[in-house]
Design brief:
The protein has 11 helices and 4 strands. It folds into 2 domains: 197 residues, no CATH class; 74 residues, 2-Layer Sandwich (Alpha-Beta Plaits). Strands 2-3-1-4 form a 4-stranded antiparallel β-sheet, with helices on one face. The longest helix has 31 residues. The protein is 63% helix and 11% strand. By secondary structure, it is of the alpha+beta class.
Length: 283
């Protein structure tokens, strides 16, 4: 069973790595590069260099990542570097092949929107495989190693803004620079959406004096875990309990109905949570 799980995990990681790299490279070659959108990172620098000295946007991407891979070897180890090198190679080759095809759109706004979304999806899949697509990805991984509480997409947004500005200078177009910022913003949102959407949920706090009846129903009927906190109400000065439950969104209405049917006087608070770690959620 352990061998099966190990093999399954490696196959899934491989699919994520190759698939994400192809999506990332395709977005670069079919959307961003043809429309001169330098939407941050090594990819954005490659777009600028390819316009000044045509060699292939994917080729520049691979060459510029070599120094970062050398640094990564000392920090993250050989396995990470090999997987990241594979992702960079697939991205670069895909971008160069796609550059030979007609662009999917010549509208810079559409290119920024769809290209940014596709790059965010591809980058997230590669991240989930345990590798990166190189460039700012490696820098971001170094930052997350020191500050793990920061959100990945926001780091990208901060680090890549200067490249968007440089693109406007190189192409002598403030409009292209603004479109690049749009692409970068969409990229960061798509990246965070894929990486963190499974963590989001609701935190439900139920104040009730019928804990012995409600708790088993929540555990069995709603299939949610609860933490019981003994409290004393301020207005009526009665002994009661707070049932604290981390709930995925699709189970929220079940929890609400069970609480209302069990105790019509129950006081319930529903709070948004951006990330939930633990059993039943992300590890």
């Amino acid at each position: 069973m352990d061998i099966y799980r190990l093999a399954k995990g490696r196959v899934t990681s491989g699919i994520f790595l190759v698939g994400g790299s192809i999506i990332f490279g395709g977005a670069l070659g079919l959307f961003l590069s043809p429309n001169r959108l330098a939407a941050g990172g090594i990819a954005g620098i490659s777009v600028m260099l390819d316009r000044l000295y045509p060699l292939g946007v994917g080729t520049y991407t691979m060459l510029l990542n070599v120094p970062l891979l050398v640094i990564s070897a000392f920090v993250f180890g050989r396995r990470f570097v090999l997987h990241t090198a594979a992702a960079i190679a697939v991205c670069g080759l895909t971008a160069d092949r796609c550059a030979l095809l007609p662009p999917l759109t010549n509208d810079p706004l559409l290119a920024a929107l769809f290209g940014g979304a596709a790059m965010g999806l591809g980058c997230a899949l590669v991240f989930l495989s345990g590798a990166t697509t190189g460039g700012t990805d490696i820098v971001t991984k170094l930052i997350l190693r020191r500050f793990p509480h920061l959100r990945t997409g926001r780091i990208f947004l901060a680090a890549d803004g200067s490249v968007c500005i440089a693109g406007g200078i190189v192409f002598n177009s403030l409009t292209l620079s603004m479109y690049a910022f749009i692409g970068l913003f969409v990229f960061s949102k798509a990246l965070d959406s894929v990486l963190y959407s499974s963590d989001k949920g609701k935190l439900v706090l139920i104040v009730t004096d019928k804990t012995k009846v409600l708790l088993p129903r929540l555990l069995s009927d709603a299939n949610v875990g609860c933490t019981v906190i003994s409290v004393r109400t301020g207005y009526s000065e009665l002994n009661a309990s707070i049932l604290m439950c981390a709930v995925k969104k699709h189970r929220l209405q079940t929890v609400r109905r069970l609480a209302e049917r069990t105790d019509s006087k129950a006081f319930m608070l529903v709070l948004d949570t951006n990330e939930i770690y633990g059993e039943g959620f992300q590890k």
